[in-house]
Amino acid sequence: MGAFRQFLQRPRQSGLRKLLFQVHLWVGLGLGLYVLVMGVTGSALVFADELEGLLHPEIEAADQKAGAPAPASALLAAARRAFPERQATALYGPTSHRPTAVVYMKRGDDVLHAYLHPVSATLAASTTSSTSAVRWLQDLHFNLFSGRTGRTVNGVGAVMLFLLCVTGIVLWWPGAVRWTRSLMVDFGRNWRRINWEIHSAAGFWTAGLLAMWALTGFYFGFSQQVNGWIHRLSPVSSLMVPESRPGVASTKPEVEKMIADAAERVPNGRFFGLQLPAGKRSTYIVFMARDTPGTKQNCDYLYFDRTSGAYLGTWHRGLSASAGDEVIRWIVPLHFGLFGGLPIRILWSVLGLTPALLFVTATMMWWNRVLRHKVVDQRAAVPGAAKPLEASSSTSTQSLLKPSEGGVNS
Question: Which H, E and C letters describe 69-133, residue by residue?
Answer without folding.
Answer: CCCHHHHHHHHHHHCCCCEEEEEECCCCCCCCEEEEEEECCEEEEEEECCCCCCEEEEECCCCCH
